[in-house]
Write a structure and sequence with these properties.
- The longest helix has 13 residues.
- The strands form four sheets. Strands 1, 6, 7, 9, 10, 11, 12, 15, 16, 17 and 18 form an eleven-stranded mixed sheet that branches. Strands 2-4-3 form a three-stranded antiparallel sheet. A two-stranded parallel ribbon has the order 5-8.
- The protein folds into three domains: 60 residues, Roll (Structural Genomics Hypothetical 15.5 Kd Protein In mrcA-pckA Intergenic Region, Chain A); 96 residues, Pseudouridine synthase; 127 residues, Pseudouridine synthase (2-Layer Sandwich).
- By secondary structure, it is α+β, with helices and mostly antiparallel strands.
- The radius of gyration is 23 Å and the shape is elongated.
- It is built from seven helices and 18 strands.
Length: 352
C-alpha cells in the first residue's frame, strides 16, 4: 500500500498517540449531523432529474444512504416545503431541506473503563483491545464492554440508524486481543463499513498453535457456518456456510507449538480458529475448538504444564490497514503481542 502511515502501539500505552499530523478531520458535506441545524440545498440545472435520495447522498456524504432513506420516510425531508418520496426526480431551482431528529439513546450506560487508544481523530479511533473485554453488550455481558467505555470516552458518537451508539464496524471475540477500529460519525461508519464489505481492509493476526506445520505457509479456503449439531459453534461442515479464506505463514517454530501470521480475506465468525483446527493446528488455549486432548501430545511435562496455563485462545489481531474514510489516506496500525502470549512465546523459545 503506497504512502501508508504506519502507527505502532507501544506496549501498555493508554491514551492518544501524540502524532502532530493526526489532528481532527472535519466532516465532509457541510457538517449535516443529527440534532444540528437543518440543511438546505438548491437543485442546480446539472442536477435536475436526480432522485431525491441520491441527490442528498451526494450533498451530505457524511450520512449513509440508509440514514437518508430513513429521514425521508420519517418526514424529515421536504422539497419546496412538501413531503415527497425518495424516488422523486428533482427539478432545477427546487429547494431541498433536511432536518434530522435528535438521536435516540441506545440504553447502554457510559462506564469509565481505560481504553488502550492507539489513534484518534474526529472521525474514528483505533483501539488495542485487551483479551477479556467484550465488544458490545449481550446476554450475560450487560456492562463492562467496549461500547460502555466508548460512550464514556466519546461525546460525539456515530448515530447510525438514528440511535446514539458507537460506530462499531467489526468485532473481535471476547478472548481475542488486538486492533479494532470504531467510527465516530456517520460518514466514517459508512466509509469503513464499505471497505469491510468490499474486503479492502487488511487484517493480520498472530496465532500460537499446537504442533509444527510441515509447510512454511498455506491457504485455507473452506466455507464457515453454524455447526450442524452444536449451534454455539462454527464449522466447515455447515450446510449453509459462507465462503471463507485464510492465508497463514510460519513466523517462529518452537517444536511443540508454532507462532503463525494469519491474513484473512473474509471475516466470518471464529474463522481463524475453525480454519486452523481444520488443518490440524488448533489455537492454544481455545476451549471451544482446541480439543481437550491435544495438550496430551506435548511430551515434556514442564512444557505441557506451561502451555496448559494459557487461559484464553492465543490469538491476537496484530496488524490492521485501511483507508481513512474521509481523507483517503492509507493507514496501517500494529500492536505487539500482549504479555500472556509474549511470555509463553519466550518460554517456548527457550525450551526449543
Amino acid at each position: 500500500m503506497a504512502d501508508t502511515k504506519e502507527i505502532k502501539s507501544p506496549t501498555g500505552q493508554i491514551g492518544h498517540d501524540g502524532l502532530d499530523d493526526a489532528g481532527p478531520v472535519p466532516a465532509a458535506g457541510g457538517g449535516l449531523e443529527s440534532g444540528r441545524a437543518p440543511g438546505a440545498f438548491s437543485v442546480l440545472p446539472e442536477e435536475a432529474g436526480q432522485r431525491l435520495d441520491l441527490f442528498l447522498t451526494r450533498k451530505a456524504p457524511e450520512l449513509s444512504r440508509a440514514r437518508i432513506q430513513k429521514a425521508i420516510d420519517e418526514g424529515c425531508v421536504r422539497v419546496n416545503d412538501r413531503l415527497v418520496p425518495a424516488s422523486r426526480k428533482l427539478k432545477a431551482g427546487e429547494e431541498v431541506r433536511i432536518a434530522l431528529p435528535e438521536l435516540k439513546p441506545c440504553g447502554v450506560l457510559p462506564e469509565a473503563i481505560d481504553l488502550p487508544i492507539l489513534y484518534e481523530d474526529a472521525s474514528l479511533l483505533v483501539i488495542d483491545k485487551p483479551a477479556g473485554l467484550v465488544v458490545h453488550p449481550a446476554p450475560g455481558h450487560s456492562a463492562g464492554t467496549l461500547v460502555n467505555a466508548l460512550l464514556h470516552h466519546c461525546q460525539d458518537l456515530s448515530g447510525i440508524g438514528g440511535v446514539l451508539r458507537p460506530g462499531i464496524v467489526h468485532r473481535l471475540d471476547m478472548e481475542t486481543s488486538g486492533l479494532l477500529v470504531a467510527a465516530k460519525s456517520d460518514a466514517a461508519h459508512h466509509g469503513l463499513a464499505g471497505q469491510f464489505k468490499g474486503h479492502e481492509v487488511k487484517k493480520t493476526y498472530l496465532a500460537l498453535v499446537y504442533g509444527d506445520p510441515k509447510d512454511d505457509s498455506g491457504r485455507i479456503e473452506a466455507a464457515v457456518g453454524r455447526h450442524p449439531t452444536d449451534r454455539k459453534k462454527m464449522s466447515t461442515q455447515s450446510r449453509h456456510g459462507r465462503a471463507a479464506v485464510s492465508l497463514w505463514r510460519v513466523r517462529e517454530r518452537y517444536g511443540a507449538a508454532t507462532l503463525l501470521e494469519v491474513d484473512i480475506e473474509t471475516g466470518r465468525t471464529h474463522q481463524i480458529r475453525v480454519h486452523l483446527t481444520e488443518i490440524g493446528h488448533p489455537v492454544i488455549g481455545d476451549k471451544v475448538y482446541g480439543g481437550t486432548g491435544r495438550i496430551k501430545t506435548i511430551a515434556d511435562p514442564f512444557v505441557r504444564s506451561r502451555v496448559k496455563g494459557m487461559e484464553r485462545q492465543a490469538l491476537h489481531a496484530w496488524r490492521l490497514s485501511f483507508r481513512h474514510p474521509l481523507t483517503g489516506e492509507a493507514l496501517t496500525f500494529t500492536a505487539p503481542l500482549p504479555k500472556d502470549m509474549a511470555d509463553l512465546c519466550e518460554f517456548l523459545r527457550n525450551q526449543a
